[in-house]
Amino acid sequence: MSHPIDPVPIHLKVALTLKEAAEYSNIGINKIDYMLRQPNCPFVLYVGTKKLVKRKEFEAFISKKLIL
């Protein structure tokens, strides 16, 4: 007998997809993708060729910025 796995709420995830990060922050997917492509981006996590957003680092980065 298998038990269905409940999805983890976005605010509890360690890493977010681009779509989740956009929903969470109300910042567009293209803008987040642009920020992830910048050298030394503090919140990018590569899993193979897939780019994920480290949620806590992303929150800290945004909280320090006035303009993106």
UniProtKB/TrEMBL annotation:
Q: List UniProt keywords, sorted A-Z.
A: DNA-binding
One GO MF term on file is:
DNA binding
Establish whether keyword DNA-binding is in the entry.
Answer: yes
Which Pfam family, any one of them, does this sequence belong to?
Tn916-Xis
Query: Which InterPro entries did the record assign?
Result: Tn1545/Tn916_Xis, Tn916-Xis
Superkingdom field:
Bacteria
Q: Which Gene3D superfamilies match?
A: 3.90.105.50
Protein's UniProt name: DNA-binding protein
Please tell me the species this chain comes from: Ruthenibacterium lactatiformans
